[in-house]
Amino acid sequence: MKNKKYYESLDKRTKEYKDYKQSRGLGDTIEKVLEKTGIKKIVESVTDDCGCDSRKYVLNEMFPRNVKAVRCMTPDQHKKYSKYVEGRTLNIWKDADITLLLALYQHIFAIRYNPIDFCRNCQGTAKKLLKITTHLDSVYNDYTNN
């Protein structure tokens, strides 16, 4: 699994690094402020583990960054998503569904998720997929109504 040292070693001009540095929510924003003010270095010098990473994760989940559609759904994407909508059942996602949702989400919202991070049995994955599906449903409904 890729860790912070891996991403920090990347060239800052690469897409992978920019995706990593993109703020995912309030937790990332707070971390950036604490780094810029020097508070993070002080805390790290005093203690080994202050719980910052877990707090950051929880805050990102509770207060994600505002998601706005960057691009419209193409007719082909609309057709594929229509098939998905017709066949979906109660928040159960197949591997093909997850692949479709992540590709559409990346294209429309310019936010990339790694499919490897999504296990089909995890409650956290279900929450993320439900959020992704809700955002895509909104774009799909706008496309259908216009």
Describe this structure in words.
The chain is an all-alpha fold and 146 residues long. The protein has two domains: 4-62, no CATH class; 75-145, no CATH class. It has eight helices and no strands. It has helices at residues 4-9, 15-21, 26-37, 39-46, 52-62, 75-87, 95-109, 123-145. Helix 3 (26-37) packs across helix 5 (52-62), helix 6 (75-87) packs antiparallel against helix 7 and helix 7 crosses helix 8 (123-145). The termini are far apart. The mean pLDDT is 83.
Tell me the layout of helices and strands:
Elements: H1 4-9, H2 15-21, H3 26-37, H4 39-46, H5 52-62, H6 75-87, H7 95-109, H8 123-145
Helix pairs in contact: 3-5, 6-7, 7-8
Précis, in short:
The chain is mainly α and 146 residues long.
Let me know the number of strands: 0
Mean pLDDT: 83
Number of domains: 2
Overall shape = elongated
The biggest beta sheet, please? none
Q: Given the structure, what is the number of helices? A: 8
Key features of this structure:
146 residues, mainly alpha, 2 domains, elongated
